[in-house]
Request: fold
Amino acid sequence: MLFLQQGPADTLTFMIAGYAVIFGVILIYLVSLAVRDRNFKQDIEVLKEFEDQDK
Amino acid sequence: MQAKPRLLTVLDTVTAVLFVVATAMVFFYAPEEAVMGQVQRVFYFHVSAGWVGMLGFLVAAIAGIAFLRTGRRDWDIAGLAAVEIGMVFAFINIVTGSIWARPIWNTWWTWDPRLTTATIMELIYAAYLMLRSGIEDPDRRARFGAVYAIIGFLSVPLTFFSARLFRTIHPVVIGTNEPGAQGAFDMTPPMLQTFMFSLFTFSVFFADLLWHRVRLGKLADRVEQLKLKTMS
Reply:
């Protein structure tokens, strides 16, 4: 039916939904990278302290 | 812990600028498509995300081969990083494709060859992550991961060519469309420029993310080594 109409279809909502997914997923991934980076650095600090105590 | 390289900061900045320009081109430079309307704009980042997904899996396969040849842990870290990034972008590709399909195909999902092979590809790499998490010995995990990434890569050309080899309603960008393809359109020069720029931007974005993810992988490796050392 979309191809029988005159003029562009009103699909703005779907475009907004599409870009919300694109930017949302990318943002979540970037945050997950930052969080994991911080956690690993904290882990290394703690493990180094353990290592120093054992010496 | 190594300090962040200056070149990585430059790459971050370049990526951010490219991303802003690509987004502006999608919304303000590329014209509205005559039949599909605004939803067609999803196409630029949908295809670019699919490209980065496949690029990630290709890099993982190459890293797998390199690991099996050299035995260097760096290649294992790079392979895992590439798979993770590839999965994120392949997921974006599948979900945005579904959103585009709703008004164009009148359905959120259909088991068309392209959609089916793309889903199988994503699941194959999800299984790669599950396989890795189930193996404790780092060397064994790296070996299994390398072999899996090489074999799993077979799903990538299958997905890419599925819209050309099988009867499908999914339109293609390169090559001629099947007679039953729905949602195909002729690209005007501004559309083509926006598309090419988006592909370039996502490729640079991939390189930037891969670098960050490899650095993260090295941190994870360091934590694992320290834990093993502390426990022994």
